[in-house]
Design brief:
By secondary structure, the chain is an alpha+beta fold. It has two domains: 93 residues, 2-Layer Sandwich (Beta-Lactamase), CATH 3.30.450; 225 residues, PPM-type phosphatase domain (Phosphatase 2c, domain 1), CATH 3.60.40.10. The chain is built from eight helices and 14 strands. The strands form three sheets. A five-stranded antiparallel beta sheet has the order 5-14-13-10-11, with helices on one face. A five-stranded antiparallel beta sheet has the order 6-7-8-9-12, with helices on one face. A four-stranded antiparallel beta sheet has the order 2-1-4-3. Helix 5 packs across helix 6 and helix 7 crosses helix 8. It is elongated.
Length: 380
Amino acid sequence: MDRLVLERILAPWSSDRRGVAVEVVDAAGVTLAGRAAKQNSERAAGRIEADVVVGGVLVARVVAAGCTHDDERLRPAIEALAIAIAELASERGGREAAEQALRDHRAQDAATTLGVDAAELAKGRRQQRSIVTLEAPDVPGYELASYYAAAHEVGGDFFELFRIPRRGRPLGIVIADVTGKGLDAALLMAFARPVLHTALCNANGPSDALSRTNRVLVGEHRGTLFITALACVLHPPSGRVRIASAGHEAPLLIPANGGPVTEIGRAGVLLGAWDRIASPETEITLEPGDTLLLYTDGVTDAVAPSGGRFGDGRLMAGIEAARAGSPEDIVAAVRDRVLAFQGTAEPADDITLVAVGRSRRRRRASAGTTTREPSRIDAQ
């Protein structure tokens, strides 16, 4: 929930001279917007509260503090305000707030089970979240979008979009999945991510980068967890993309001409299991309007409360429903279908989606008008 939006909603209450302080607080009681009740201590005993509930999860409360008996008539207005904020939150990202509240609840349960302090576990989750790319680099002529959600407090998926520091500044694209869950998978992810980043910046291509990463993992990592990964290098002027896979789900090419969605490349073998690997490399060209979608198996392996699996068919249906839109539209369509299918079921695995689309060519400007390509597209 955007603080500025909430402040505008609560603005009429700020001029109330009866001493009633109205604020919006999160589920932990931290003020998000409005006049905090502690600033009105003289009459703080009288309170009217209304829950802001999104998707069955408490995400905030509207609190009117300093009320007298005569102010009880404000209750319907406060409750109506909470309902309105809940509706707004649903439209503007309330789902993420609800998911976060649910993750916090699960974190507390996990901390109790593991004997770990919940605050430390939450801190680790925030630190890991900061590792995963949340903002795409600026690539004129291209639109980039992404979505990431860990199944547990910390996850084993990771992805990254970054400009490679060499001539032409190609775009490096990485998506990977540790074959496990929880703390062990998160630790291996944190170790492998900078290794793969560095390898892609210095290798002759994505296949070479995966081979270099594998050598490091085999030499330094001792354990039973391994990694599936895709490494890609996009040359923006031509749209040429080199793709190499280490046992990962094949990326999907969504052509702008309405042709069938196509799996690109071959899987190869995962990282960290054998001394030497030869990751197959494929080259394609993104034409204007084409989109390349990368994902982890947490998408197709999502499980409904009834036990059914999301599967490839529902993934394709989500893509088809949004293929005429932007990469962000495609990511959002698949994400929403997965989360709706999953419902209240425990997440089966981390979910990661990355879409890279080449912008459609603009028509020539008529006399007296100008056109330009978008200068910035942020990842979801």
